[in-house]
Amino acid sequence: MTTAASGLILGFLLATAYGAGFHLLLGGPARRIILYLAASWIGFALGHAVGDLINLNWLRLGALQLFSASVGAWVALIISRWLAGDTAVT
Predict the structure, then answer these.
(1) Could you say which of 21, 36, 70, 80 is the most buried, measured as most Cβ atoms within 10 Å of its Cβ?
(2) Where are the domains of the chain?
(3) What is the DSSP letter of 65?
(4) What is this structure's pTM?
């Protein structure tokens, strides 16, 4: 397996774990996990791309810009929760 493929798989697994963990911590309707997973995947990819673009070397794991990708995923998760609003029924 090449380095790029293993980085892609690791990134997908980490972004999935971030999205699922975010939903586990904050709760909400079951369908919201789809939003969190998509936001985490997109944010992770954008964060990695930005980290690669500016050549950031903090917490780099092979070809994967782990620090900037993780920050991108969490920012996307927070923004997606804010945009989705609170749908809790009291």
Answers:
(1) 36
(2) 3-84
(3) E
(4) 0.86
Q: Which two tokens stand for residue 72?
A: 């991108």
Cα separation, 48 vs 64, in Å, equals 7
Tokens at 21, concatenated = 């963990």
Give the separation between CA 49 and CA 69, rounded to whole angstroms.
Answer: 8
Buried b (16+ CB within 10 A) or exposed e, 47-62: bbeebeeeebeeebee
Residue 23: Cβ within 10 Å count: 21
| Residue pLDDT, tens place only, 31-83 | 899 999 999 999 999 999 999 999 888 888 888 899 999 999 999 999 999 99
Q: Which DSSP category does 60 fall into?
A: E
